[in-house]
């Protein structure tokens, strides 16, 4: 089965690091993704990691994957007001469809 | 702009009416996906196409829903006899052949009154 869970809210001060966590249950996932959604908009692919990797860094973003615990995290360094959005964790499978969590609303305060 | 586009962006309809949405994928993307997103939830997979072939349909896609991609380019999603429970954001995504990166359009927000 496919079940992705995320905490619902995160508040962070501008300039600090944000860490968004996600757990999933299906170990057959091929890739794991982080998407960003701003109000009224579609989803923007931020980054992704292959399931046999444990870390990926892309500018201010760092993805950590603990496959044993089925835990995925996204760290945003130097969080800015423009990072305020909903962040979705998603699992991808060999049939290419994605299974999403309910999203974490990140609020950046000055 | 070469991103995924969807039309219309917003649709308000009365219960019982039929609606049709259109998605234009990124050119050369042979896979096209439809998802539905309700308030406070993540997107849920509905169906996907490889070229013009519809390869998988979710159990969420009742017989009132039909999707087509007749020439392997744009796709349409039709909902017949709409119900209030159909109110949601309908998202389309596309991907290159044999890659795992899906790029989403801005969505069509449907409100059924």
Using brief descriptors, characterize the structure shown.
heterodimer, A: 110 residues, mainly beta, six-stranded mixed sheet, five-stranded antiparallel sheet, 11 strands, 0% helix, B: 113 residues, seven-stranded mixed sheet, globular
Per-chain topology:
The complex is a heterodimer of chains A (about 110) and B (about 110).
Chain A: E1 4-6, E2 9-13, E3 18-24, E4 31-37, E5 43-50, E6 55-58, E7 61-66, E8 71-76, E9 85-92, E10 98-100, E11 104-109
Parallel strand pairs in A: 2-11
Antiparallel strand pairs in A: 1-3, 3-8, 4-5, 4-9, 6-7, 7-8, 9-10, 9-11
Chain B: E1 5-7, E2 10-13, E3 19-24, E4 31-37, E5 44-50, E6 53-57, E7 65-68, E8 75-79, E9 88-95, E10 103-104, E11 108-112
Parallel strand pairs in B: 2-11
Antiparallel strand pairs in B: 1-3, 3-8, 4-5, 4-9, 5-6, 7-8, 9-10, 9-11
What's the short version?
The complex is a heterodimer of chains A (about 110) and B (about 110). By secondary structure, chain A is mainly beta.
Structural class of chain B: mainly beta
Kindly state the percentage of residues in helix of chain B.
under 10%
Q: What is the succession of H and E elements of chain A?
A: EEEEEEEEEEE
Q: What is the string of SSEs of chain B from the N terminus onward? A: EEEEEEEEEEE
Number of strands of chain A: 11
Largest sheet composition of chain B:
7 strands, mixed
Q: What's the overall geometry of chain A?
A: globular
How many DSSP H or I helices of chain A?
Answer: 0
Distance separating the two termini of chain A: 41 Å
What is the percent of helical residues of chain A?
under 10%
As a whole number of angstroms, the C-alpha radius of gyration of chain B is 13 Å
Q: DSSP helix count of chain B?
A: 0
Rg result of chain A: 13 Å
Structural category of chain A is mainly beta
Mean pLDDT value of chain B: 93
- The residue-averaged pLDDT of chain A reads 92
List how many beta strands of chain B DSSP finds: 11
Query: What amount of the residues of chain A lies in strands?
Result: over 45%
